[in-house]
Amino acid sequence: MSDNDLFKKEIGEVKPIKRKDTVDTYSQIPKPKPVAKKFLEDEKKVLTDSISDNFESIDYFLARDELFYIKKNHSPDIVKKLRNGNWIVEESIDLHGLTSDEAKVALVEFISYCKQRGIRCIRIIHGKGYNSKNKEPVLKNKVKKWLIQKQEVICFVQAPNHDGGGGALITLLEK
Q1: I need a labelling partner for 141 at 20 to 30 A (CA). Which of 6, 22, 54, 113 fits?
Q2: Are 103 and 111 in contact (CB under 8 A)?
Q3: pTM to 2 decimals?
C-alpha cells in the first residue's frame, strides 16, 4: 500500500469547506507610490559628492603607532573609550574587493543607514591593500579621508587585532 493510499484510508472522506465570508485583502493593499529612478540616482550622487577623494586634513593623530581621529570640540577621552571597547560594534561593512567609487557609495549609504537606526558604533573593514596595485592601500587611505568629512563621524580608531587590526576602523557616530 502506498503512502497516499494509507493517508487517504486514515483520514477518510474529506469535504472542502465552503466559505463566503472571506475577504480579498491582497487587492486592497495600496500600491506604493512610484519613485523616479532618476530621483534615486540623484540622491545617491548628492551623498557621494558630499565627500571628496582629494580632501587633505591634519586632524589625524598618532598614538602608540596607531592612527586615530577625533572631531574638534569632543573629549579626547572618547578615543580611549572607543579603543577600550566602551561601545559595542553594532554594525559592520566590508569594503574588500570594491572599487574606490563603489566603496565610497557603499560607505556613505552604510553611514546613512546606521544613523537612521540610531546605531553609533560601527566597524569599517577597508583591508590592508595587499591585493592592490603596487601593494598600496588605496581604500585604507581614502576611507579615513571620507570619514573625516562626514558630519556624523565623531571619532575613529584602528580596530584591535581580533577585529581587523590595521585593516579596519572602529568608528563612533553622533547620537
Answers
A1: 113
A2: no
A3: 0.65
